[in-house]
Design a protein that fits this description.
212 residues; Rossmann fold; two-stranded antiparallel ribbon
Length: 212
Amino acid sequence: MIRNVIFDLDGTLADSEDLIIKSFQHIYKKFKGHEVSESHIKKTFGEILEKVIRAEFDQDYKTVVNEYREYHHENFDTYMKLYDGAGEIIEELYLNNYTLGIVTSRLDFTAMKILEMYNITKYFKSIITADKCINHKPHPEPLLKCLEELGGTKPETIFIGDTVFDLECARNAGVKSVLVSWSNMDTNLLTVKPDYIIHQFEDIKKIILSIK
């Protein structure tokens, strides 16, 4: 029986794709003199920002990271939004006594800003961000840390995400994985073999009820 539902944030609950792409295009244009394809940027979704920038830029990566974050912050309210139905399913699960958590590669400041913007922070017992862990997805540490704070067991838990890092994190932690199809869906994700695939938030309830 499922008691714990843990969500990734970007691409799962939060529709941040436009903001992330625009932020990356900004730093590519500023520091490299050109933009890159959206598909190139999407390949980095789910990774730690500093890791991506270190690999992509020759300049002092901290300067590039700071420029990214400044642009991201300035345009946050314009482009950041929740997916339709996200707030409703979170509230419904909470009211039905499921324990909810978040595991995200965002820093605590921006993750909390998203949750507070839509008044859903109160529904989550555990929120694990990048600055709360030494290791990051696909390493199991953040998911196991969240599970520890929720006080549940692995068989009672599902982790819902949109990237290969989410799926591998769940597998490495010994938790059932749920892949969402509404964000960054790539057939290569299926090679990781998620336990479940959902096409709308309502499908979460069906999965929960099907697991005994």
